[in-house]
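User: quick one, sequence for these tokens?
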């Protein structure tokens, strides 16, 4: 597992949730989000993707985004003529926001890595199989 730096810039997402290992193309148009992407591209190209609770909110704050998100690598950036940015990202690790650090132009969060919990092999499938046999 690669190192996750903390704090890290955040990109609130509307109408999409990104999971680890997903590769997604996103259009970014909000000024704060474009600024966060520019800062990310100057460094190691990792950003925190977090779904916002209300897709209509143009300026989501700490209370308007979920506390669990995904650290993502920015694979490709394309600036469009209208000022928006088209990016290709790959989700890497699930993280939980532990602290809000606000600045004037962007939003930054401290975060910690969430380790995957192991589930007993086939336990859920076996339970489903038993229920299916009872129904049939």
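Assistant:
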């Amino acid at each position: 597992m690669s190192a996750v730096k903390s704090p890290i810039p955040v990109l609130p997402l509307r109408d999409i949730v990104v999971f680890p290992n997903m590769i997604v193309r996103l259009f970014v148009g909000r000024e704060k989000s474009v600024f966060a992407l520019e800062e990310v591209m100057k460094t190691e190209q990792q950003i925190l993707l977090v779904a916002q609770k209300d897709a209509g909110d143009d300026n989501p704050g700490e209370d308007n985004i979920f506390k669990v998100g995904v650290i993502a690598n920015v694979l490709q950036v394309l600036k469009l003529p209208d000022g928006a940015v088209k990016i290709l990202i790959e989700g890497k690790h699930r993280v939980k926001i532990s602290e809000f650090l606000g600045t004037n132009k962007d939003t930054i969060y401290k975060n910690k890595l969430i380790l995957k919990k192991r589930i007993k092999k086939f336990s859920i499938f076996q339970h489903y199989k038993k229920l299916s046999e009872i129904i049939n």
